[in-house]
Amino acid sequence: QVQLVESGGGLVQAGGSLRLSCAASGRAFSSYVMGWFRQAPGKEREFVAAIGWSAGNTYYADSVKGRFTISRDNAKNTVYLQMNSLKPEDTAVYYCAARRTPADIYYYTAQLYNYWGQGTQVTVSS
C-alpha cells in the first residue's frame, strides 16, 4: 500500500513558477512509475507528466512540454513537478499517481495508476 501526499500548490501570476512535491509512503518507491495529472473545473482529469524508474525516462503532455519538468528523488520517496512559464490555463487541481511496475516504463493513462494523492490546487492569475 502506498500513500501519496502532494504539496507546493498555490496562487501565482502568469509567467511565474511553482514546484509541486509528492511524498510517498511505503517501500520500493524506486519500482513505482509516477505520474502527475490535473483537473480543471468542469473538465476531465488530464495527463501532465510521467516518470519511470530512471530519471531520464520521462514523458509529457504537449501542453506542458518545455515548461514543466518531472523528476524523482528515490532516497526521499518523492517526485517533483517543476512548473515554469505558467499560464492561466494551467489552473487546476494537480494529482500525483503511482503504480508499481516490473520494468522501467511509464503510463500516461489515468486508469493504469492505482494509487492517488488528494490533490493540490494551482491557480495562475492573468
Short description:
This protein has strands spanning 4-7, 10-13, 18-24, 32-39, 46-51, 58-60, 68-73, 78-83, 92-100, 115-116, 120-125. The protein is mostly beta strands and 126 residues long.
Give a written overview of the molecule:
- With 126 residues, the protein is an all-beta fold.
- The protein is 0% helix and 48% strand.
- The protein has no helices and eleven strands.
- It has strands at residues 4-7, 10-13, 18-24, 32-39, 46-51, 58-60, 68-73, 78-83, 92-100, 115-116, 120-125.
- Strands 2, 4, 5, 6, 9, 10 and 11 form a seven-stranded mixed sheet that branches. Strands 1-3-8-7 form a four-stranded antiparallel sheet, with no helix packed on it.
- The N and C termini lie far apart (40 Å).
- The model has no long low-confidence stretch (mean pLDDT 96).
Tags for this model:
mainly beta, about 130 residues, seven-stranded mixed beta sheet, four-stranded antiparallel beta sheet, globular
